[in-house]
């Protein structure tokens, strides 16, 4: 039977934790390494609802993208949401492994999954550190038409975009908050950039540079990696039950 540390070492081979960015806190964050694992729940985030779901399906381990501990914890009590999540994990004896920026840059990770979900071809690197991907799309749709395709393919509740005045041919993608890489997208010869959490001035910069910029939301641009994680784990540990969270979803809606 596999242990929590067996799963950690497996994921470390797929997306080495030592490649995470300096600000990050990816890794084995909660639990006992020698605990036997029969069931794993995969989710983008570890929320209170996800912990409840893990307990209901009998999972000994949650594997998530976003770290359940990111800002250093000064206390763990039931007086705030962060403390309640950690208490729930401990009380249910559920471990947590979180693969964050190391999974963003890993081959087959977040950005490859995003590029594939958007139907890009000739997928290649976007930056020297591996954060993001580029690819081409056929048909040369308008920025508005491609934004609608992005919304549909990612199952997003809505998208924000600025039309840079060029048809969509070469696309850069950056799962999560990569709006500060607008100039990198232009330098790569891209006419379009799909990311999330774009700031007002970043939309202005993109328009001035003639770049179509599409903000498809943090959850939709990164949740595409969860089926990838589940598939890796199921193939790596065929004797385990691996579930994708059905309770975790986009946190906000558009009216």
From TrEMBL:
<dbReference type="InterPro" id="IPR002678">
    <property type="entry name" value="DUF34/NIF3"/>
</dbReference>
<comment type="similarity">
    <text>Belongs to the GTP cyclohydrolase I type 2/NIF3 family.</text>
</comment>
<protein>
    <recommendedName>
        <fullName>GTP cyclohydrolase 1 type 2 homolog</fullName>
    </recommendedName>
</protein>
<dbReference type="InterPro" id="IPR036069">
    <property type="entry name" value="DUF34/NIF3_sf"/>
</dbReference>
<keyword id="KW-0479">Metal-binding</keyword>
<dbReference type="Pfam" id="PF01784">
    <property type="entry name" value="DUF34_NIF3"/>
</dbReference>
């Amino acid at each position: 039977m596999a242990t929590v540390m067996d799963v950690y070492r497996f994921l470390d081979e797929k997306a080495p934790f030592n490649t995470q960015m300096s600000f990050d806190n990816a890794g084995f964050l909660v639990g006992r390494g020698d605990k036997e694992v029969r069931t794993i729940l995969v989710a983008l985030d570890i929320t209170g609802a996800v912990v409840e779901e893990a307990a209901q399906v009998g999972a000994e381990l949650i594997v998530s993208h976003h770290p359940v501990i990111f800002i250093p914890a000064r206390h763990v009590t039931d007086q705030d949401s962060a403390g309640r999540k950690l208490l729930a994990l401990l009380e249910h004896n559920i471990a947590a492994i979180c693969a964050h920026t190391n999974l963003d840059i890993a081959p087959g990770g977040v950005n490859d999954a995003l590029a594939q979900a958007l139907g890009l071809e000739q997928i290649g690197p976007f930056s020297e550190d591996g954060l993001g991907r580029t690819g081409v799309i056929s048909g040369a749709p308008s920025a508005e038409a491609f934004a609608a395709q992005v919304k549909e393919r990612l199952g997003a509740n809505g998208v924000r975009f600025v039309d840079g005045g060029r048809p969509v041919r070469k696309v850069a993608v950056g799962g999560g908050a990569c709006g500060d890489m607008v100039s990198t997208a232009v330098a790569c010869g891209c006419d379009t950039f799909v990311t999330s959490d774009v700031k007002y001035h970043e939309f202005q910069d993109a328009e001035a540079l003639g770049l179509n910029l599409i903000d498809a939301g943090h959850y939709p641009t990164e949740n595409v990696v969860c089926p990838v994680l589940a598939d890796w784990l199921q193939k790596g540990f065929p004797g385990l039950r691996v579930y994708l969270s059905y309770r975790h979803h986009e946190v906000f809606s558009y009216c």
